Design the sequence.
């Protein structure tokens, strides 16, 4: 026990062991915590999932709306123009899925002189029923990591490095592997220990990392199959309206006035230059055209 608490090499090994225990305990906690979601993901893959909820799990409401539109186009309920405008056909197969049925009815309710774009389905209030159906039918699963594990482990690296330095200061232990070195070298030892811990701590999943790779692959497969029933040209037209177009920039009137004044000033200067050029040209022509008269002067 004295080697772990008072020897310099033992102090380093003790605090690195603490870091290993922190990682192991966090890993066991996450494994037990994710047992039910892991089982649910396996059940979704085995039991099947409708393409619209699968697209929602894959990328949110935009992906779900694009897949739903492709399914309605394939069923002949909706037609797509070359610019991605959606219009009802008032024919096609009846939709048994609640989300698709709601979207078909909401597109039919659009005025005859207007068309629907994909971004409107995601943001407009008249498509709230479709979005509510999608959110209700989609499995309640968190598809990305919480990010707390990585944050906790990165914080642990700092605490352990500081604790190692405080421990070495209290016990007045010599520098490991260099007992004759100055005790300030402990700062470099603690920094090196922090770097050793920093790498494994970064391997923990962050908030943007997807948690269920198998479920993601399954949802991507279902989404691609549903969209593959539509021609590529139609798919590109639909996808081109995913984002709302930005309005043109509005220039203030002061700039216009400034440009006008600048143009006026430039014109005045141009006239002055033109006058001087005319004078020089006239003189030159006089010299050439007057001939002897100019030459006599």
Sequence:
């Amino acid at each position: 026990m004295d080697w772990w608490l008072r020897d310099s090499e033992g102090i380093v090994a003790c605090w690195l062991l603490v870091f290993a225990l922190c990682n192991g305990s966090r890993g066991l906690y996450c494994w037990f915590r994710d047992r039910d979601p892991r089982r649910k993901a396996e059940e979704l893959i085995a039991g099947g999932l409708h393409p619209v909820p699968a697209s929602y799990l894959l990328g949110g409401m935009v992906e779900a709306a694009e897949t739903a539109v492709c399914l309605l186009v394939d069923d002949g309920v909706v037609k797509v123009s070359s610019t991605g405008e959606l219009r009802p056909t008032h024919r096609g197969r009846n939709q048994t899925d609640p989300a698709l049925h709601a979207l078909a009815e909401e597109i039919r309710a659009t005025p005859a002189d207007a068309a629907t774009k994909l971004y409107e389905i995601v943001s407009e209030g008249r498509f709230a029923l479709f979005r509510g159906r999608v959110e209700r039918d989609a499995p309640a699963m968190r598809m990305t990591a919480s990010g707390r594990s990585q944050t906790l482990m990165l914080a642990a690296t700092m605490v352990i490095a500081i604790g190692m330095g405080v421990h070495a200061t209290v016990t007045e232990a010599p520098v490991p592997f260099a007992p004759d070195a100055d005790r300030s070298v402990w700062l470099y030892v603690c920094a090196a220990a922090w770097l050793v811990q920093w790498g494994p701590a970064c391997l923990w999943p962050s908030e943007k990392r997807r948690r269920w790779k198998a479920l993601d692959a399954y949802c991507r497969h279902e989404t691609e199959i549903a969209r593959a029933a539509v021609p590529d040209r139609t798919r590109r037209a639909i996808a081109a309206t995913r984002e709302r177009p930005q309005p043109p920039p509005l220039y203030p009137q002061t700039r216009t006035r400034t440009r006008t004044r600048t143009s006026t000033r430039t014109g005045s200067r141009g006239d002055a230059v033109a006058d001087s050029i005319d004078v020089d040209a006239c003189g030159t022509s006089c010299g050439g055209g007057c001939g002897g008269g100019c030459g006599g002067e």
